[in-house]
Amino acid sequence: PGSGPRMMAAAWRALWWRLLLLAPWGGSRAAPPPPPDAEFTFLLPAGRRECFYQGAPGNGSMEAEYQVIGGAGLDIDFSLESPSGVLLINEYRKSDGVHTIEPTEAGDYKLCFDNSFSTISEKLVFFELIFDSPQEDEDGDSWAEVVEPEEMLDMKIEDIKESIETMKNRLERSIQMQTLLRAFEARDRNLQESNMSRVNFWSAVNLGVLVVVAFLQVYMLKSLFEDKRQVRT
């Protein structure tokens, strides 16, 4: 009957020791959190090249996605350089792309979008950066050692932590997929609106030609039945 309070007391003692180990004066410090994910949509004029800089921590993971959602051809040149100046990715005339850098190098990464090959068409570009910090096995082992009390608990804290991490990763992936689907939807909408404008323009041109042809046909038929002889009285 007294096992319940003992188990709660043991769990609280384990949590207290965990907080002591994570204190700033402890032997090990937690790894700095990765920078927040970023997404941006911008208009790239014809004949222009735009570059963006994004800082990233070392030994992490960075995923860069881009997509052209508006403009003639829906293509663009893309390049990605490391903080040390090494060209990691260089693509030509692509409409979209997904690239993962792992492990990352500490510093500012350079992302460039080039539309210099187009002389009249501007491009609407969407890109997203997703960061993830590496998991440290030592932290997980120390967690398991600290929270394990003398009495065997029915539920393992390590399993709970693993389930929470898995759920977090899946939620982040779901957010990423939703953002990518919104970019696809924006690109399709722009393409449909452009096609509708072209259809309306050429329909008006065809209607005008039909009216002119009908007028000319009526005029020609009337001229055939007119009596051009002069009547003398």
Topology of helices and strands:
Blueprint: H1 3-21, E1 38-44, E2 49-56, E3 61-70, E4 76-81, E5 87-94, E6 96-101, E7 107-114, E8 123-132, H2 137-147, H3 157-225
Antiparallel strand pairs: 1-8, 2-7, 3-6, 3-8, 4-5, 4-7
Question: Which features characterize this protein?
Answer:
233 residues, four-stranded antiparallel sheet, elongated
How would you describe what is shown here?
- There is one protein chain.
- Helix content is 42%, strand content 27%.
- By secondary structure, the protein is of the alpha+beta class.
- The strands form 2 sheets. Strands 1-8-3-6 form a 4-stranded antiparallel beta sheet, covered by helices on one side. A 4-stranded antiparallel beta sheet has the order 2-7-4-5, with no helix packed on it.
- The protein has 3 helices and 8 strands; from the N terminus they run H-E-E-E-E-E-E-E-E-H-H.
Entry summary:
This protein has 233 residues and is of the alpha+beta class. The chain contains three helices and eight strands.
Tell me the distance between the termini.
135 Å
By DSSP, the count of extended strands is 8
Enumerate how many helices there are, as a single number.
3
**Overall form:** elongated
Unreliable spans: 16-29
Radius of gyration of CA atoms, rounded to a whole number: 33 Å
Structural category is alpha+beta
User: What is the overall pLDDT average?
Assistant: 76
